[in-house]
Input
Amino acid sequence: GGLNENYGRELLELHTLGVDGGYTQQDVIEVSRCFTGWGMDRTTGRFQFVPLRHDQEEKTVLDQKIPAGGGQRDGEMVLDILARHPSTATFIATKLCRRLVADDPPASLVERASGIFRDTDGDLRRVVETIITSPEFFSPAAYRAKIKSPFEYAISAVRAVGGRIASVEVDPEMMRLRHTLEGAASAGFGGDRVTGARRKSLNLHIFEMGQPLYSYQAPTGWPAREIYRLGLETGDEN
Output
């Protein structure tokens, strides 16, 4: 039915290089070609590569050649190229600094964190260690600059009391029905019936606090900026 560019664009823009990371529309097309044939087995939900649906011709991604006939390896090569691109280091470091320090993190800290990302071949543990041991992390400006989202608040509360997430339902059909109804409520369907239930799951409590799981409309996911979390303005920047 034609080439689907959606995932290629999201991979470049949202997960690796960033919107200003230096890729072109042609790179979006080439990346999408590399991932043709990738999908899942609908009966098992597991990854599946279908060679007959793959574009076997040569591609060029960010000026690097992807040889013809590579099959599944084409997509794997793209992931390697993107993971080691300098723009990816900066993009990931910026997101982590924004998450842990401030909405607009100091450029000096972003640069140090991105440098560690590049030097360690993407070791996120080292990157986070660099951020949370930095002077910027302990600066007065960063003190209480971030608040927990409803999801983070709920999960940290469970962890603090040594709790565990478990269903009390014993009937598999009832569990399936509960999951279906709560999922529909999170997407905006029949929420009034579910929220009035006598027994509520942790997921539903998070929904009632304003963060329905997996239901953010934009592909960016729930914003990490505090100004959006507080409801003072809207936007998709993550």
Notes: The radius of gyration is 21 Å. The longest strand covers residues 38-40. The first helix runs from residue 6 to 16.
